[in-house]
Amino acid sequence: MITKRIAVFMATTAMVATAFSASAADFKIGLSNGWVGSEWRTQMISEAQEMATMWAEKGVEVDVVVQSANVDVPGQIAHVRNFINEGVDAIIINPNSPTAFDPVFAQAKARGILVISTDAEVSSQDAMYVGIDHNDYAKRTAKWLAETLDGKGSIVTINGVAGHPANEMRVEGYREIFDAYPDLKVVNEVNANWEQAQGQQAMQNILATYPDINGVWVQDGMAAGAWRSIMDAGKTGDIAATGEIRKDFLDIWVENGFTSAASVNPPGVMASALNVAVNLLQGKELIEPANKGKYENAMYLPIPFINGENVKAVHAELEGKPGYYSYTSVLSIEDATALFK
Fold it and tell me: pLDDT tens-digit profile of 73-90?
């Protein structure tokens, strides 16, 4: 049975496809990124732009318009309104809030514009989400840490930007796992805003206060900094800590034999969302509706996982890449198209 929400979404998609049926298959897609505090975001935009060129090789012209800047929620809402005024066919957004965009997404839908969020889920039923399940992302590494510590000891967590939807889902995820281990105590939780320097300083402060901790749950963007403080304190053999997917961190992980693991939130999520968008703009229908997640509007992508068993193989794949480059994966054009009928 098709739900009312999915039926409305399909009707909007059909309206967009009909409007452009006379112009071959040329689509204009707006990309909105409301935070530029890491190279991960730059790579995310770059991979989406590269994917647009790959569509051109298949005879589908995709013009991407990028608005990428450090803005608050009203500033990013302005991104969306600009795209609406430009008459784009679709908007792909990495949103700074899960709920604040509901009214402006409704405006986009009223204009026949497809809206897809990526990297962070949104509550709007006028949008769909294409990306990883951040709750599951955190659960995987939290479970690895708990099992590595045999379910006992003291740990700390270093989180990203407080209030960001992806960060909050990750916090919910690791708390659920750690709560299942009564002998595992979370002695402190801090935020370091997904920045390496802040991650390093946070870890240094933590070790000064809790010199005998056994484990650290830290997110990507900050793990390299946290591990540098662990190394400086001479505790690489005493502490198990989660890691990240950047080339520079994988370099020191392999070189030093860290006890680490990392779930992968690939920068390719926006490129994956773009591939889904183009198929929808062509009037195709998803075989399995996007009805997962908290808001029942999500299509989840696979989450690669790196630990001691495969880190050397992953590291080898990044040979020749700059230190800031993140290990990535993308739902290819072919794989995305296979999701439609």
Answer: 999 999 999 999 999 999
Domains and CATH numbers, the chain: 4-132+266-303+326-337 (3.40.50.2300), 134-263 (3.40.50.2300)
> In which order are the strands placed within the sheet that holds 128-131?
62-68, 27-33, 90-94, 114-117, 128-131, 298-300
Strand locations in 132-181, DSSP E? 153-159
pLDDT digits (tens, 9 = 90+) for 225-250: 999 999 999 999 999 999 999 999 99
Instruction: Yes or no: say if 41 and 195 are a contact pair by the CB < 8 Å rule.
Output: no
C-beta of residue 121 within 8 angstroms of C-beta of residue 146: no
Crossing angle of helices 4-19 and 269-281, rounded to 10°:
70
- Closest to 142 measured CA to CA, from 171, 182, 183: 171
Within 8 A by CB and 6+ apart from 102, the residues are: 122, 123, 124, 126
* Helix, strand, coil percentages, rounded to 5, for the chain: 45, 20, 40
Kindly report the pTM of this predicted structure.
0.89
